[in-house]
Here is the input.
Amino acid sequence: MKPLQASSGDLTADRRADFAEMLLASGEPAQAAELLLGALELAPRWAAGWFRFGEMQEAAGRLDQAAQAWAMTLKLDPVDRLGAALKLQLIGKAPASPAPPSAFVETLFDHYADSFEESLVGKLGYRLPDFLSQAIRKARPGRFRLAIDLGCGTGLMGERLRPFVDRLEGYDISAAMLSKAKAKGVYDLLAKADLQRFSRPGADADLVVAADVFIYLGAL
Here is the structure.
């Protein structure tokens, strides 16, 4: 899979895109979309540009044009790392999907990894790992032989599990998040995995934890 280009690869197109963003920020989405379209004429295979063009058209109230832009995004990036299919669903231009595209979830958290804990814990006061670990200890005091942390992210849950498990394994779709988790040194095994298609050989676990994960997996 080719890397997703934040830049169009064309300097003039990038400059037009920057000006389009300035227009959008100043409350002129229609003019922004018009300027970005000029950039896309110079770089017609820029998937991220088409996606952003769709967002500008949506902001301008032009849902049909937004849908066309997101359809082009999907044509250029069929795995849908930007979530164009979700955008189409939200404006009623595509049927609801049972789950978000795995590539979109992976891209989302790869980009979010560096600021994830600051945003979630520092700004939002996120405490679910604390609550879950307390509930586990209350339900079954003592140690667990093997615990699996599904969607382990940066290791927030793993830090709480480590004191009472003998072996701790973490699985996540985002390599960037796994890198953050590895730096904490609390897991015996970390592996990249798409939980929509997850299978794991080896011994059965006596504790499986999924903190804020199932929302990304769709219907169970």
